[in-house]
């Protein structure tokens, strides 16, 4: 048993002053086989603590159904950290941001139209309570007061940038205490007045601040609200995340190390956000929308100390040199980088079309009006809306009200174009970048395939239902009588593939599943290069690696070695727009930017 307390402007662990030198690492973005490797590299860099968020949507994917196995085995992750000699900071607040889908909130919250998030709204709090009743008993034995490595837990995350409901914050705090949490509690916010006023729970809960530069300014503001307490940067942004279609973010190692040195000179404790970012596997990437919707890429490399594939970077050694001036670096042999393998080209020799596979992938729903994913109990992936339009109709604008987030439109199976959230104007008299339809006298079938590109994870647009939220119009007229196919793409084993047929070049491609086999003698990490492909999702041995998109900046998908097996392996690519050559490459290096 141990104690971790605040005494004046110091942290004290078992009656000895201690400074928290922490790095963020998310167990849910790393395959479990690599947890120990990444944590050892954290310890070898000079850190004494690891910090992790806890994503509600991973642990309760369906209401009342809980998951704490595999990549969701938070208890095992914490135990490994303790074995290595690390303290652990856990951030189990219902909302985590983290550039993670819906900020970690489960999509099923949006089934209730009048649901209010992150405030004192009883239907919301009832669901938080049910989750905490399952989660927190798993963490209590791992608290330092019970002999474990957990020294602190977070009440809510950057709440001041969202709201100011102190009754809500107090309810969360009381919920932690009543369930037996007895380690230090804290909040974390930006260092503006409004953020600290809205997000802190002073004087009962320690306030911490988040920033990437100008530590004297940030800590000066924190002292105005919380004098004579430890200075903590709970998120030191030494790197940054990427959105599709924008340049890859980088930050010079010497700059990141210099700001760290400034913080340590001030006597502060610090948590690097991130130390090791990992990967947004599957459909778990988030998105931002502060005026414009922007989806986060699959890689969460973050340009930090340890790369997406676990390699020590220039920033790692620059930070280690700084830490060595303030703490004793443990005498640990630096773990070797995991081997990277070039397996060469993979020819995807089989395929099957989405439309011909619908019966294998989805249970259709008949509905007078369009319904969102959440209304149909679907969390992630795609959703297809199909209806029959009578004719004749000439050159009339198709308007989707509202599209979340990107739609491919087909008329009698023929591709008509893309409608995207940022550029689609639903006004009938505006026809820039829009689709005009001609419906013959005998009528036509309209199919709209919508991709959920990630729910918003930060800010006022957090409530972000997916699919078609209101309806579809042709001109001024709403279209009714829909057949809807939820497509989470979790039933790929039921697909029936056929040998690739040579297609006429004049035929517009339709969304297609491609399958190929490749053989592995020696297992290692590799990177899937999809040159010549347009946009879609890739699976290795049934594991969803995440999204790819030719517009970058991400050019490869990380394939951790534990996903492979000696001998035959399977690659499935769901391509939305088509490719000239159904060939992918497994290479031994990543490409970002």
UniProtKB/TrEMBL annotation:
Class of the enzyme per the UniProt entry, highest EC level: hydrolase
Alphabetically ordered keywords of this record: Glycoprotein, Glycosidase, Hydrolase, Signal
The Beta-galactosidase 1-like first all-beta domain, residue ranges: 371-488
Tree of life domain: Bacteria
Alphabetized InterPro entries for the sequence: B-gal_1-like (IPR026283), BetaGal1-like_ABD1 (IPR048912), BetaGal_gal-bd (IPR048913), Galactose-bd-like_sf (IPR008979), GH (IPR017853), Gly_Hdrlase_35_cat (IPR031330), Glyco_hydro_35_CS (IPR019801), Glycoside_Hdrlase_35 (IPR001944)
Annotated GO MF terms: beta-galactosidase activity
Catalytic residues in the record: 158 (proton donor), 235 (nucleophile)
A biological process term (GO) from this entry: carbohydrate metabolic process
Chain ranges of the Glycoside hydrolase 35 catalytic domain: 10-325
EC nos: 3.2.1.23
Residue span, Beta-galactosidase galactose-binding domain: 511-569
Recorded catalytic activity of this chain's protein: Hydrolysis of terminal non-reducing beta-D-galactose residues in beta-D-galactosides
Family in the record: Belongs to the glycosyl hydrolase 35 family.
Protein name: Beta-galactosidase
């Amino acid at each position: 048993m141990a104690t971790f307390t605040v005494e004046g402007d110091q942290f004290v662990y078992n009656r000895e002053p201690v400074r928290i030198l922490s790095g963020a690492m998310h167990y849910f973005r790393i395959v479990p086989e690599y947890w120990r490797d990444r944590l050892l590299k954290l310890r070898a860099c000079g850190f004494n603590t690891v910090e992790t968020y806890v994503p509600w949507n991973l642990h309760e994917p369906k209401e009342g159904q809980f998951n704490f196995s595999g990549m969701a085995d938070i208890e095992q992750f914490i135990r490994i950290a303790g074995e290595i000699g690390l303290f652990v900071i856990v951030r189990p607040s219902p909302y985590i941001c983290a550039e993670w889908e819906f900020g970690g909130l489960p999509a099923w919250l949006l089934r209730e139209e009048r649901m209010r998030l992150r405030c004192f709204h009883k239907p919301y709090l009832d669901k938080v309570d049910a989750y905490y009743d399952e989660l927190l008993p798993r963490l209590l034995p791992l608290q330092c007061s019970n002999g474990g490595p957990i020294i602190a837990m977070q009440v809510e995350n950057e709440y001041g940038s969202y709201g100011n409901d102190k009754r809500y914050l107090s309810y969360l705090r009381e919920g932690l205490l009543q369930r037996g949490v007895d380690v230090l509690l804290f909040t974390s916010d930006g260092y503006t007045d409004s953020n600290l006023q809205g997000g802190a729970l002073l004087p009962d809960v320690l306030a911490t601040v988040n920033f990437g530069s100008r530590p004297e300014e940030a800590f000066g503001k924190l002292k105005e609200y919380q004098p004579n307490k430890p200075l903590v940067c709970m998120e030191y942004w030494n790197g940054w995340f990427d959105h599709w279609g924008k340049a890859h973010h980088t930050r010079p190692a010497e700059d990141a190390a210099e700001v760290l040195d400034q913080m340590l000179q001030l006597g502060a404790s610090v948590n690097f956000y991130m130390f090791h970012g990992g990967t947004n596997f599957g459909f778990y990437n988030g998105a931002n929308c502060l005026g414009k919707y922007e989806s986060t890429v699959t890689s969460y490399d973050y340009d930090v100390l340890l790369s997406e594939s676990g390699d020590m970077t220039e920033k790692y050694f620059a930070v280690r040199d700084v830490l060595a001036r303030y703490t004793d670096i443990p005498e640990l042999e630096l773990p070797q980088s995991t081997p990277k393998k070039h397996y060469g080209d993979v020819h995807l020799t089989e395929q099957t079309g989405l439309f011909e596979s619908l019966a294998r992938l989805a249970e259709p729903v008949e509905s007078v009006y369009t319904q969102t994913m959440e209304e149909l109990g679907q969390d992630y992936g795609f959703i297809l809306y199909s209806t029959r339009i009578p004719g004749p109709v000439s050159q009339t604008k198709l308007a989707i009200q509202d599209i979340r987030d990107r739609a491919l439109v087909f008329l009698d199976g023929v591709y008509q174009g893309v409608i995207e959230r940022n550029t689609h104007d639903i006004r009938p008299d505006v026809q820039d970048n829009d689709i005009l339809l001609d419906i013959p006298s005998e009528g036509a079938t309209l199919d709209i395939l919508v991709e959920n590109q990630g729910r918003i994870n930060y800010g006022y647009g957090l409530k972000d239902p997916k699919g078609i939220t209101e309806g579809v119009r042709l001109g001024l007229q709403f279209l009714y009588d829909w057949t809807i196919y939820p497509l989470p793409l979790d039933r790929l084993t039921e697909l029936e593939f056929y040998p690739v047929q040579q297609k006429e070049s004049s035929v517009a491609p339709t969304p297609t599943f491609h399958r190929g086999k490749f053989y592995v003698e020696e297992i290692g990490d590799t990177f899937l290069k999809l040159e010549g492909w347009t946009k879609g999702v890739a699976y290795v041995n049934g594991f969803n690696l995440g999204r790819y998109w030719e517009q970058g900046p991400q050019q490869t998908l990380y394939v951790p070695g534990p996903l492979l097996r000696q001998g035959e392996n399977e690659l499935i690519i769901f391509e939305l727009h088509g490719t000239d050559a159904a060939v992918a490459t497994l290479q031994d290096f990543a490409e970002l930017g």
